[in-house]
Amino acid sequence: MNEFHEPVLLNDSITGLNIRPNGVYVDLTFGGGGHSKEIFKNLTDGYLIAFDQDQEALKNGKLNSNRFIMINKNFSHLQTELQRLNFLNVDGIIADLGVSSYQFSDNNRGFSLKYNSVIDMRMDKNSKKDGVFVLNKYNRQELNRIFKEHADFKNPMFIVDAIINYRKKKIINTTFDFKNIFKNFIPEQFENKFFARLFQSIRIEVNNEINVLKSMLNQAQEVLSPKGRLVVISYHSIEDKIVKSFMKYGNFLNSQDKDFFGNKQSPFQVVTKKPIVPSDMEIKLNNKSRSAKLRICEKL
Hints:
By secondary structure, the protein is of the alpha/beta class. The protein has two domains: 10-101 and 209-299, Vaccinia Virus protein VP39 (Rossmann fold, 3-Layer(aba) Sandwich); 128-206, no CATH class. Helices cover 38% and strands 15% of the residues. The protein contains twelve helices and nine strands. The chain has a seven-stranded mixed β-sheet with strand order 3-2-1-4-5-9-8, with helices on both faces. A two-stranded antiparallel ribbon has the order 6-7. The longest helix is centred in the middle third of the chain and has 16 residues, at 191-206. It is globular. The termini are far apart. The model has no long low-confidence stretch (mean pLDDT 91).
């Protein structure tokens, strides 16, 4: 099987973890195992725990060692699963938030604009809500919310109206059904970017990605040891703003907590003042890395 996801910013992210050979590390997005394999090379008697909610990832190159533990769950279960395994604290956590190449290329999953497939978009196939449900059952207010919050459309009502008018006549079932709704709305040169934003917003909603990300970051703060590193690679501005605020302030309010005496408090020291981005060469070799931003912080 081809790798799920070519590991993006591999050297920078592994360096950013500041790996100790006997430490305990967590890869929250195993995918094709690229980051995990590199982490494990740097361990002598340390442990690596990997999460992936997609069952297909279990077939994709697990590491044959009793110091490697694979968990087929969403990373929102981070703290619960570590407690179950009797790991109360860990020395580093990495999360590559990109959609796997495998998920995009599987024409049964509905992640890609290229294939005329059912709009599924579930990263966890056991989840009940899929993209078809969102597009056909969400009301006007809910649709307006997701296109505003998940795709940065300032006034998406023309998108919402078009969806509601179309589904009165016919169920929106496939990616090509969805594209047909807008075939007379959008100039051809803007189609790819427009649909990419729409598909992103539906995928985020189906997988509850924003709330799951916030939950994971809060749990990471709890389980990291002092001097432990948190390394996150994001791919769109919504995620990146959340990660940036959390690493800087320890919250999602974009404001500094203060103690009783008015002194500024943060649980982290930011290692990357500006995000690390891929080189021109990496983008050339792996076009999916073009929007990646890597941020690193260390727990105080």
